[in-house]
Amino acid sequence: MFGAMKRFGGTILDWASGVHPLETVRFISKLMTPLKFPRDGKREINAAVEIESKIRKEAEVTQKRQNVVAEPDPGVTKAWWKAFKPSQIVAMDCEMVEIKKLDVNKNQYIDMSTGIFKAGTVAIVNSEGNPILNKRIYYPESSFVTNPHTERVSGFRKDSLLNGEDFEKVKAEVEKMLEDKLIIVCGGKFMDFKCLDLNPDKYQKFDLSQFFYKIHYNPNYKGKTINDIGLRSLVFHFYNVDIQSGSHSALVDAEYTMKIFMEQYTKLKVENIDDPNDRKRYHDIFKEVKHVNDRNIEALKNEIIGKC
Hints:
39% of the residues lie in helices and 16% in strands. By secondary structure, the protein is of the alpha/beta class. The chain folds into two domains: 2-67; 80-95 and 120-133 and 166-307, no CATH class. Strands 5-4-1-6-7 form a five-stranded mixed beta sheet, sandwiched between helices. Strands 2-3 form a two-stranded antiparallel sheet. The longest helix has 30 residues, at 38-67.
C-alpha cells in the first residue's frame, strides 16, 4: 500500500493543489481511512489516478477557452476610418495657379483668363502631421495669372515657380504616394486632385466639408442652403490660429487638415460612424463656428482677447 502511495505521491501532490477543495478533502479522507484488505488500497490508488485525469482534462479545456480570441460583436458598429491603418492615412493640399492662354503662333502667353487651374505647390503629410512630400512645380515666367489678389493669397509672382520641378515628375510621385491610401482634403470639390490631372474617383478620399458644414434656412424661399465650413474657419474655431492671414501654404493647410481629422472629426463623428458620406445629423455643434475672412479676422481675434 505504502509503496503504491510513494509511487503515485508526486502525481497526487501535482493535482491536489489545483483541484476543488472539497474534492481534495474527500480524497485525503479516504487515504486516512484504515484499509481492511490490500485490494482496497489498490482501489483507492486507481481512484486517485482517475480523479487526476479528470482534473487535468478540465484544466486543459479551461486553458483553451481562455486562449480563444473573442469574435467581434456583429452588433457593434465599427468606425469607417478604422478600416485603415494609421500608416495608410494622409492629408493633401495644393496651392494653384491659373494658366494663361498660349498664343501658339507667337509662342507666348496672352494675359487672358482660361479657367484652367494647375498645382503650383503640393504637400502631403502622414497621420501624425509630418510632411512626406512638399513640392514646388515649374512654370515659365508669366505663364499664369498674377495680380495683387493672387499674390496675396498664394504668394506666387510671375517668376515664383521658375525653380520648381517638372509637372509630370511631381504628378508621378504623388500618384505613387497616394496608392492604397485614405486621402483627407478640405473643400474645393477635390480640386487638389484635378489640378494635378488626377481622377478623384480612382482614390479613397474624404473631404472634411462632408461633415463640417452649416444649414441655412432662408425665410424668403422654400428649402435650405448648405454652406461648407472652410479650413481657415475650422482652424480658428478649434485652435484660435489664423493659418491664412498672409500667403497660403500647402504644407500648413495639409498639416491642419490632418489635425482636424484626427483630433476633431473622429471624436465628433458619433452618428452613423460606419458611413463617411452620411449627412443626417444634428448641426448644433457647428452653429458657433464663425466664417473667417480678411475683413473680420481682427474683430474675431479681439473677441478672444476680451474673453481671456
